[in-house]
Amino acid sequence: MKNKNRLVIASVLSLGLVFSACGNDQAKEDKASEDTSQQVEESKDNSAENDDANKTDDESTKTDDNKAEEKEESEESDDDVSLSDWDGKWNSMYEYLEDDDIQPAYATLAEKDGVEESKAKDDYLEKRKTDFAGLVVDGDKITFLDNFPDKDGKTIGEGTYEFSKTENQMVGEHKITWNIFEATNDDAPYKYMILMAINPDEDLVHFHFRYGDDLDEILNKEGWFPTVVSPETTNEQLIEEITE
């Protein structure tokens, strides 16, 4: 009987040691699994942080590169601007607007704008109004005339002008660029001449401009776009320009 009891006790003790060992092994496995999972998560986090950092660096680099390119393009554009780009003899469009052949254009313009013909005409005259009839651009010099150059226009003022900068401006949905020139002689009739580029693709060879002594005022004056045209301009071209 004693021997049986001893055998039972020994068996119980052996099973206890086995279960204890199994428990320890399982705990170790669980701990190892947790450590592995934590390492994987940390690796993912570090990888994500590195990706974000690299992305930020890349975006920063791209932004810096874009700014540098824009600045370089702007500098190149400014360096390329010369008053001589507008060289030639020019007639003020305003001087044509009372011609009999031009009058039918105002009826078309009135219908298009939904206003009375008289208002359409008055508004258009105000839009193109100039204080001189002709211009001659020669190098860095502008001569202002009281008539068309080809009609023996007399000089009413002269100025030498130096390029200052370009200024972009939104007019409705359209972006326009003014090329700003500043007079270098004190007796120039206008301190500033701001010019839009000549569009070589249009049938009517012309350019829009503004002039005056207060740059902010002339830049911000709404609806005023004085225009000069080539002396070869026809009435048909002018009518098309008015009614477009």
Task: Describe it.
This protein has 244 residues and is an alpha+beta fold. The protein has 2 domains: 80 residues; 161 residues, Lipocalin (Beta Barrel). Helices cover 48% and strands 23% of the residues. The chain contains 5 helices and 8 strands; from the N terminus they run H-E-H-H-E-E-E-E-E-E-H-E-H. An 8-stranded antiparallel β-barrel has the order 1-2-3-4-5-6-7-8. Helix 2 crosses helix 3 and helix 2 runs parallel beside helix 5. The N terminus is likely disordered.
Question: Could you name the CATH class of the largest domain?
Answer: Mainly Beta
CATH architecture of the largest domain: Beta Barrel
How much helical structure, as a percent, in the residues?
40-55%
By CATH, the topology of the largest domain is Lipocalin
Whole-number total of structural domains: 2
The H/E string reads HEHHEEEEEEHEH
Brief summary:
This protein is α+β, with helices and mostly antiparallel strands and 244 residues long.
